[in-house]
Amino acid sequence: MSASGAFLEVTDLHAGYGDARVLHGVDLAVGRGEICAILGPNGAGKTTLLRALSGMVRVRGGVRLDGMDLTRRPPDALARQGVAHVPEGRGTFMPLTVEENLRLGAFTRSGRRRGRAAVEADLERVCAYFPVLRARMRQAAGSLSGGEQQMLAIGRALMLRPRLLLLDEPSLGLAPMVTEELFRIVRTINEEERTTVVVVEQNAHLALGVAGQAHVLESGRIVLSGPAERIRADEQVARSYLGYRI
């Protein structure tokens, strides 16, 4: 545990692409087992923040998980520490079957957790959350609907048995009913497994309904932080930063 008591602690984080700086000194802390929503307009740096947390972009500053310094470690090292990233656009391997995609999620596990019995048990666990995947095991991922592909992407991340789950725009391109079901499942996973979740989401109203806390990014800087319920109920905040009216 870090000195602040946070499970995930981000300190003065700067990140970007080449000479283009996107994040400018981001500070945030997320408690163990919490759901944290990252909100803000397009181009605010939300996706870059998740990429920074999963080692996909170069950073300056500090990232600590359960007291361990993960700054500037590569993605495979972060995966072995239990960081699972579901990117925008899902990132499934379309020619592979659903089962093959799920098994790939266990690839970075080590020791007994990578054994056959453990992997089979986790396949059952994932199918309990997403029953539709059980019926699609032999199908190519590319043949699934958008909602099913998103379920597969999250299921593959769960095969890692993550301590920290990063979700980037899980509702993108999905029908409202599918989105609501997806968020219900994410909340169930959080409650049952105490997995810490950081979710970037354009549907601010829905994200704030499942999150315990929220941070609003604007131009690469956090401009607002607080309990999700308070941010959700503030009409001025909703109009100014989140793009909806209460």
Short description:
It holds the Pfam family ABC_tran. This protein is of the alpha/beta class.
Query: H/E series, N to C?
Result: EEEHEEHEHHHHEHEHEEHH
Radius of gyration: 17 Å
Low-confidence spans: none
Instruction: Assign a percent range to the helix content.
Output: 25-40%
Biggest sheet details: 6 strands, mixed
The residue-averaged pLDDT reads 91
Query: What class, by secondary structure content?
Result: alpha/beta
Strand order of the largest sheet: 6-7-8-3-9-10
Count the DSSP helices: 10
- Counted beta strands: 10
Query: Per the principal axes of the C-alpha atoms, what is the gross shape?
Result: globular
**Assembly type:** single chain
Strand content: 25-35%
Distance between the termini: 38 Å
